[in-house]
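We were asked to recover a plausible sequence for a given structure. The inputs and outputs are reproduced exactly as logged, with field labels preserved.

PROBLEM: sequence recovery
POSITIONS: 263
GIVEN STRUCTURE:
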């Protein structure tokens, strides 16, 4: 299948590692020009070098961007336009908020989660929309969590903010559909990243059990009996963001090996 991504301009936020990096790699493999961002310049340098080594293509650049700062988001989008002439695809991504129970969370925790996991998506979409509207074409994929379908224990902040991303996706798909801008949300289930490793360690410590036991218990809940890999998640994201997707918009896709039981 031709994904029609050759030469397309793609922005991917929080892309120096984990799922964001896996998505960046998949776009470069398919001929896109990618601008990735994160707050960690050294991690970005390393990710860029690794992607170039793995693909043999140098169509990837980076910019340091704190997604809680609107001026840095503006600068990121402008760099993509300077490099590639426009923005064809936006992949919104951000690190997950910390785990915690309701009585443990402060106002600062709530504000941080709102800024990082919802408002940053709003701000970035606002910046790319003029280019997509002008060219009557665009793809936006908001990376979220399986908590948009089923709440996750000890992740109250995620359970609250992530469904907001889904509401944003559905609303904007209606508003900007006439401009041929397709907007979807993709939520990972248990995909083996540093974030999942961190959550497994927190879970194990709180229960007084081994990390290996936590992993075995979680794998038993997945019909595939294993965690997903970042490249499996990335392929789904890249398809929705590609020219091969011409009619799917406003949807929520969970990439979880069948783990979530909610309809």
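RECOVERED SEQUENCE:
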């Amino acid at each position: 299948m031709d994904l029609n991504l050759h030469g397309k301009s793609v922005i991917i936020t929080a892309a120096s590692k984990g799922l964001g990096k896996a998505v960046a790699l998949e776009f470069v493999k398919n001929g896109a020009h990618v601008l990735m961002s994160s707050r960690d310049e050294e991690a970005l340098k390393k990710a860029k070098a690794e992607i170039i080594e793995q693909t043999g293509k140098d169509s990837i650049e980076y910019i340091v961007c704190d997604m809680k700062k609107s001026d840095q988001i503006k600068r990121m989008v402008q760099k993509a336009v300077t490099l590639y002439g426009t923005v064809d695809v936006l992949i919104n991504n951000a690190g997950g908020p910390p785990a915690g129970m309701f009585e443990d969370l402060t106002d600062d925790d709530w504000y941080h989660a709102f800024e990082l996991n919802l408002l940053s998506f709003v701000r970035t979409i606002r910046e790319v929309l003029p280019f997509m509207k002008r060219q009557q074409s665009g793809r936006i994929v908001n990376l979220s969590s399986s908590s948009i379908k089923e709440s996750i224990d000890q992740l109250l902040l995620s359970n609250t903010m992530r469904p907001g991303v889904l509401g944003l996706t559905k609303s904007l798909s209606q508003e900007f559909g006439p401009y041929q801008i397709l907007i979807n949300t993709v939520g990972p289930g248990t995909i083996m990243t540093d974030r999942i490793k961190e959550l497994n360690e927190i879970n194990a410590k709180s229960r007084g059990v081994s990390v290996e036991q936590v992993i075995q218990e979680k794998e038993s809940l997945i019909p595939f009996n294993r965690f997903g890999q970042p490249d499996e998640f990335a392929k789904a994201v890249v398809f929705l963001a590609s020219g091969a997707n011409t009619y799917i918009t406003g949807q929520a896709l969970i990439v979880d090996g069948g783990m979530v039981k909610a309809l």
